[in-house]
Design a protein that fits this description.
By secondary structure, the protein is of the alpha+beta class. Helices cover 39% and strands 15% of the residues. The chain has helices at residues 8-29, 35-49, 60-70, 88-95, 114-119, 140-146, 199-208, 230-239, 243-263, 293-302, 332-340, 352-365, and strands spanning 53-57, 78-82, 99-103, 125-128, 152-154, 162-163, 166-167, 174-178, 192-196, 213-215, 218-219, 270-271, 279-280, 286-290, 341-344. The structure holds pyridoxal-5'-phosphate (PLP).
């Protein structure tokens, strides 16, 4: 049995006709840049997330850049980011001419550790940029209590995640999402979103995504060209009403993995996510920390199970970002995570039998089957 880490074709089997029809209707309007499909999706997604403003942009990386730019982040500013995340989190800060300040993570949640993040605030700190990594919402209340400036949520991996009943993206000053095809809400190409309750900030992001134009060919400031594609917006409108059910299925898969690992007595060699009741984790990834990671990964691959390592190198040790960090050993938990994490197959269409097979293979590797 071959078990992929992620398989979009299974979802397209079920939704293909609806998606083709939605794309055909955009083709009939002839409006491929912004226009009614993008406006409709922005309205629907703002309501779904419970925010006043949602601005469709070209990808999640630009969402972060535009959010920071709209907040006025620039040279001389510092932005606190976790060291264990995708590159774009800190890349966006550098694109603004500011300095990323790396902070360590909590190994249980993989998220920025709030007290340590707050201890890195200086008079130059312009924003804190927490990431809801793998779909686990970060403790934004603690960050907001301890820091009065803007909190920019990198919610690229957390569409629909909740904390105490509140969806991420509407909780910080501004939220940034990615619709990369593998995301919980994924397009058939690139896409991204900026969300906020602040009307002025929303207007500035709208302007910055069209080269800072206030009207056609009149530019108030220098922005970029970064719009959500109309065809992708139409695809996303088809998928949006299904995301809650998909996220529930992801949680059920996570619970099945956890029950399986527990039944095989794997607690000493596999640290699986143990999510408190008030945390609405959406399991963009099902990431565990394991002993002898690379050999386990090889064993699973030999039996047809695809896995991934998100992420093998922390940001402070990335060649492009090392100048902002303090070198090996400076952020030990992020570095330890890079050596031990393994993301197991996770997507809503994964079957129970496939989950059980992965668990059995893991148990067999540790001699517990
Ligand atoms: C945490 C995080 N931030 C930002 C991004 C950037 O999103 P995109 O790939 O749409 O530019 C991603 C997605 O890849 C991500 O996982």
């Amino acid at each position: 049995m071959r078990i992929p880490a992620f398989d979009l074709t299974r979802q397209l089997g079920e939704l293909g006709d609806a998606i083709r029809a939605a794309m055909a209707s955009v083709m009939e309007t002839g409006q491929f840049i912004l226009g009614p499909a993008v406006a409709a999706f922005e309205t629907e997604v703002a309501a779904w997330l419970g925010v006043e403003h949602a601005i469709g942009v070209a990808n999640g990386s630009d969402a972060l850049y535009l959010a920071l730019k709209a907040l006025g982040v620039g040279p001389g500013d510092e932005v606190i980011v976790p060291a264990f995340t995708f590159f774009a989190t800190a890349g966006s800060v550098v694109r603004c001419g500011a300095r990323p300040v790396f902070t360590d993570i909590d190994l249980d949640t993989f998220n920025m550790e709030p007290e340590e993040a707050l201890s890195r605030v200086t008079p130059r700190t312009r924003a804190i940029l927490p990431v809801h990594l793998f779909g686990w919402p970060c403790d934004l209340d603690r960050l907001r209590e301890g820091f009065s400036g803007p909190v920019v949520e990198d919610a690229a991996q957390a569409f629909g995640a909740e904390w105490a009943g509140r969806r991420v993206g509407g909780w910080g000053t501004v939220g940034c999402f990615s619709f990369f095809p593998t995301k919980n809400l994924g397009a058939l190409g690139d896409g991204g979103l900026v969300t906020t309750r602040d009307a002025d900030l929303a207007a500035r992001v709208r302007r910055l995504r069209v080269h800072g134009a206030t009207q056609k060919y009149v530019h108030a400031e220098v922005g970029i060209n970064s719009r959500l594609d109309a065809l992708q917006a139409a695809v996303l409108s088809v998928k949006l009403p299904r995301v809650a059910a998909w996220n529930q299925r992801r949680a059920a898969i996570a619970a099945r993995y956890a029950a399986g690992f527990s039944a095989f007595g794997l607690g000493e060699v596999v640290a699986w996510p143990r999510v408190p009741a008030e945390v609405g984790h959406v399991f963009h990834q099902y990431t565990v920390r394991v002993a002898d990671r690379d050999r386990l990964r090889q064993h699973l691959a030999q039996h047809g199970v695809e896995t991934a390592v998100y992420y093998p190198l922390p940001l402070h040790l990335q060649p492009a970002l090392a100048e902002y960090g303090e070198g090996p050993g400076s952020l030990p938990r992020a570095e330890a995570a890079c050596q031990t994490v393994l993301s197991l197959p996770m997507f809503p269409e994964l079957t129970d039998a496939e989950v059980d097979r992965v668990v059995e293979l893991v148990a067999a590797f540790y001699g517990k089957a």
